[in-house]
Write a structure and sequence with these properties.
The complex is a heterodimer of chains A (115) and B (112).
Chain A: E1 5-7, E2 10-13, E3 19-24, E4 31-37, E5 44-50, E6 53-57, E7 65-68, E8 75-79, E9 88-95, E10 105-106, E11 110-114
Parallel strand pairs in A: 2-11
Antiparallel strand pairs in A: 1-3, 3-8, 4-5, 4-9, 5-6, 7-8, 9-10, 9-11
Chain B: E1 4-6, E2 9-13, E3 18-23, E4 30-36, E5 43-49, E6 54-57, E7 60-65, E8 70-75, E9 84-90, E10 101-102, E11 106-111
Classes of the chains: A mainly beta (115), B mainly beta (112).
Chain lengths: 115, 112
């Protein structure tokens, strides 16, 4: 069964450093997402991406964040200058159709620890 | 604006039933249910589109009452594997959106 994959599974970085989280969505999916989950809390929407551009973003997704689909398979989330409060689990997800009407499949996540 | 789930936590014995509720102060276009085990990604259970439908998958089913702006997840004859945190998600601004807002979560623990 096709699945969303993410690398690395765990990333440790120093405050102020840049990190890139990588995702490979399900191959025929058209919509891509990043979510964040701080330990013990609910899953929070960050951004959605369709047709090579951001379609929606949350207030969390400020200028420190960017997303890119550099080729036909990868989808990346970049945090330019990490802060302690960026420590969280980051999930990538993808869907074939709009989120409101279709299933989103989540990847296994990347645990980001900012020291 | 996030959906509110109840109860916050529930402990069951194997074989018992449980109901998890998800309600919103805003109109619901669709409701998505996920289960997340500790340290793992959310796993999709089912999606309900507006129309008051009920869907089921083996011993897990759900209903969606558009007028009452709520959905309920029914777990029948619970198994140990049902343990985890259950989240409902909804596109609060309608169907033509890619922004899924998740509820507060319900922790379900099934004991032998």
């Amino acid at each position: 069964e096709p699945e969303v994959t993410q690398t690395p599974s765990h990333q440790v970085t120093q405050m102020g450093q840049e990190v890139i989280l990588r995702c490979v969505p399900i191959s025929n999916h058209l919509y891509f997402y990043w979510y964040r989950q701080i330990l013990g809390q609910k899953v929070e929407f960050l951004v959605s991406f369709y047709n090579n551009e951001i379609s929606e973003k949350s207030e969390i997704f400020d200028d420190q964040f960017s997303v890119e689909r550099p080729d036909g398979s990868n989808f990346t989330l970049k945090i330019r200058s990490t802060k302690l409060e960026d420590s969280a689990m980051y999930f990538c997800a993808s869907s074939l159709r709009l989120a409101g009407e279709d299933t989103q499949y989540f990847g296994p996540g990347t645990r980001l620890t900012v020291l | 604006q996030q959906p509110v789930q109840s109860p916050q936590a529930v402990i069951l014995r194997e074989g018992e039933d449980a109901v998890i509720n998800c309600s919103s102060s805003k109109a619901l276009y669709s409701v998505h249910w996920y289960r997340q085990k500790h340290g793992e990604a959310p796993v999709f259970l089912m999606i309900l589109l507006k129309g008051g439908e009920q869907k089921g998958h083996e011993k897990i089913s759900a209903s969606f009452n558009e007028k009452k702006q709520q959905s309920s997840l029914y777990l029948t004859a619970s198994q140990l594997s049902y343990s985890g945190t259950y989240f409902c998600g909804t596109p609060l601004s309608g169907g033509a959106t890619n922004k899924l807002i998740f509820g507060t979560g319900t922790l379900l623990a099934v004991q032998p």
